[in-house]
Amino acid sequence: MKHVVILGAGYAGLKVVHELQKRVKGDVKLTLVDRNNYHYEATDLHEVAAGTKKPSDISYPIADVVKPSVTTFIQDEVTALDLANQTVKLADHKDLTYDYLVCALGFVSESFGIPGVDEHALPMATLKEAEAIHQHLLAMMDKYQEVQDPSYLNIVIGGAGFTGIELVGALNDARKTLADRAGVQPSDIKINVIEASTHLLPMFSEKLATYGINLVKSFGVNLVTGARITKVDDGQVEFQQGDPEDAVTSTMEAKTIIWTTGVSGSPIIDEAGFSARRGRVIPSEHLTDNDHDNVYLIGDVAAVMPPDGNRPYPTTAQIALGMGKYVANDLASRLTNGQHLTTPFTYKSLGTVASVGNTHAFGEAMGHEVRGYMASATKKMIANESLFRVGGFREVMKKGRFDLYH
Ligand code: NAD
Fold first, then answer.
1. Residue 19: which of 361, 333, 404 has the closest Cα?
2. Which residues form the FAD/NAD(P)-binding domain (predicted)?
3. In this structure, is the dihedral angle defined by the CA atoms of residues 31, 36, 38 and 39, taken in order, positive or negative?
4. Is 195 designated active site?
5. How many CB atoms lie within 10 A of CB 109?
6. Are residues 155 and 135 in the same domain?
């Protein structure tokens, strides 16, 4: 009996389970481990944070995907990996010993060691963290009613990457609801974004990036660029602009500081002794660790290099699903005949679209630049496809985005 252990029920891990349990016969056992008993659409966390979606809108039970005759699901926290002894350590269950291991443990918010971030800024890397942001925003609106201090209406977003930009859009959609709760006008809710780079959205053409930036600014958002956040205090962000030698230091008061300056792979990866950087490993062409061929690294813990590039592909749900599918096929092959697939993992992106609120978006899809209404619909179709690829038809019917025409 061969034992395949899959760690993490995000896009990548759940995709492996979904595909592999259709393929294996009686002599293979699968075990899936996740700290939660639900899967969530990490691409929509910003909407839960803003309160434009409920946690239940973007999540579904792992039990909907798991076939108990093949797969055992364990809800627990992975605490360590012992690669030499092929063992996974869990917080509340016995150690698991594997023949093959799939590490799909996802990402955490990266503070880059900036003082005060862990204590005073709100991360948005999990469903619980996104929901905590929403609850915090509601509490700040209530507090404003009590003390009438405008810093309770101020929101600072640290970092204008895709996550920060998408969050701005959702917060703009939520402005009226938040303002009603605080008893103020929507324009009194101040959304500020502090971004280190002066060259935003570098993956897009200059024209498309400018469109995105102007779209965000048209919402009355204060976008401060070329500003590195150097410290976070309770209700205050410190940032520096200009050359490091003669930089000008400024501060901004806000009772809500949301941290979206980037993510790293699960800390379990660094601790396990893989050759990794910020929780990410450059895997082999079959997505296995170069030193442990029975260990796969997929999703946000993998840094996959394009054949002709020197920067890894961006970590997205789309590539995570592709990796999950490839690994299920590769494992099915190894479990049947002991051989890897003859073809390596390859990836072709369907496109990259940032949604800015429910009705605006921009990006590139199938080689075309898309803006506005059409881009928003395209994004929802890509999201439906992700849902379909993991959860199947049942989840699309329950949670799919059918408001394509708004
Ligand atoms: P990111 O690394 O892409 O962006 C972080 C931003 O924060 C950067 O612009 C960086 O300059 C800025 N920053 C870093 N340190 C800072 C500091 N001290 N002060 C001010 N600004 C600072 O991170 P992300 O936006 O979380 O995205 C993570 C990954 O997920 C990316 O690969 C992204 O493409 C992907 N993603 C994709 C989508 C989508 O396809 N729609 C949505 C969200 C995220």
1. 333
2. 3-324
3. negative
4. no
5. 21
6. yes
Choose, from 110, 129, 166, 238, the residue flagged as catalytic. 166
Quick one: 130 and 23 in the same domain? no
Ligand 1, residue 379: give the atom nearest the CA.
41
Q: Residue 164 sits in which domain range?
A: 117-262
**Cα 124 from Cα 132, distance rounded (Å):** 9
């502090």: which residue's tokens? 194
pLDDT at position 26 is: 82
Quick check: is 367 in a domain? no
> What pLDDT score was predicted for residue 362?
86
Cβ–ligand 1 contact at 86 (below 6 Å): no
Domain boundary pick from 262, 279, 306: 262
Q: What is the pLDDT of residue 404?
A: 41
Inside any domain, residue 63 = no
54 Cα–ligand 1 center, Å: 24
For position 383, what pLDDT does the model report? 67
Q: 242 and 270, same structural domain?
A: no
pLDDT of residue 395: 63
147 and 166 housed in the same domain: yes
pLDDT at 400: 58
8 A C-beta contact, residue 190 and residue 199: no
Q: What is the mean pLDDT of each run of 10 residues along the chain (406 residues)?
A: 97 95 90 97 95 94 93 98 98 98 97 97 97 98 97 97 95 97 98 95 90 92 96 97 92 98 96 96 98 98 91 91 96 96 93 84 82 69 66 60 44
Ligand 1 touching residue 158 (CB < 6 A): yes
> Could you give the number of structural domains in the chain?
2
Residues in the chain: 406
CB of 163 shorter than 6 A to ligand 1: yes
Residues 10 and 88 in one domain: yes
Cα–ligand 1 centroid distance for 160 (angstroms)? 6
Give 350 Cα–ligand 1 centroid separation in angstroms. 20
